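JOB MANIFEST
job_type = single_chain_structure
chain_count = 1
residues = 396
[input]
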Amino acid sequence: MDDSRLRPADVLRVGGAGLRTRPLRVFLSALGIAIGIAAMIGVVGISASGRAELDRTLAALGTNLLTVAPGSTVMGGTATLPKESVAMIGRIPSVLGVTAVGRVSGAKVYRNDRIPAAETGGISVQAARLDLPEGIGSTMDSGTWLNAATEGYPAVVLGAQAARRLGIGAAGEGVQVYLGGQWFAVVGVLEPVALAPELDSAALVGWPSAESYLGFDGSPTTVYTRAEDDAVEAVWSLLAATANPMSPNEVKVSRPSDALAAKQATDAAFTGLLLGLGGVALLVGGVGVANTMVISVLERRSEIGLRRALGATRGHIRLQFLAESLLLSALGGVGGAVLGIAVTGLYAGTQDWPMVVPAWASAGGVGVTLLIGAVAGLYPAIRAARLAPTEALATT
């Protein structure tokens, strides 16, 4: 028999036969590879799905929302925005819309009037304009937003987190909260607001209602401004001086979409760390494959001697054990890829994200396992090929 007569199919068949004789050992060795590959593909897939969700959110809500808020005074205190700031910002060319909320100092909200005063749940009370949902791109989870009929009465819309903290599943008839020392009807609950997450933990009341019932002074604390897409930077440069002409240095201007992008960058750095840990797990799995193959050579010395005596060359023996190592790694790689994709799909489904697993991650993962299998099986294959037939047959 010579090398030219050993077809690839023969190599795979002989390699597979060697693995089938020790199924438990093969399973455990392949499991180490699978865990490493699953971790790496899962991390890449979840990160890619998160980026796809961010892109989808920004595409739906836009990157042209700017927020104006009071900064600090020269003495280090908290500044205030003039009551006229909303109207003044609305006069800036290229501004598509402007809305605002104002924090109601001293007002607390509780589920009922028997809750201790200190247990506020971290819920703020904000006066809100009627056009707030359009300005920030928010939607209702239940109930309705404030309207011209309810904004002057004790009615409240809760942010998503505020509703959960108060134990309110949905707005409806008879649902009330104890706010500012009196009862307010819960007319709506918001979905989480991606571009204004501070409103998720807020109780929103109408601007006139806040002034009448809660002593609100009418000063906005956050002004949300929509600008034309090609004029965002120009509008940004004018906002501080327009909102507070007397003290523009006491005004903070930001773009919420930048905060989302920064969060994604932080997540990307964390993804790199997790990929490193997955690589360590994969390396450990490769060591396990090498250990399995070395033990296999020691246990099968008589088989090697018999094959050599029947005409198998050193090249045939090398190919046999190298094929076993590659098949073992391929089993772990394919299994790990399937597991990693499944984990990504499961997590993306629970978060309501689009599922994205880059093709390069799956193909690259399987390719890396084959490379590890080749490296891990090279020494055992060479060692097996160097055994003399007489020495191997003499092994008992």
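[summary]
The chain has a mean pLDDT of 86.
The chain has two domains: 8-58+261-393, 64-255.
exit_status = 0
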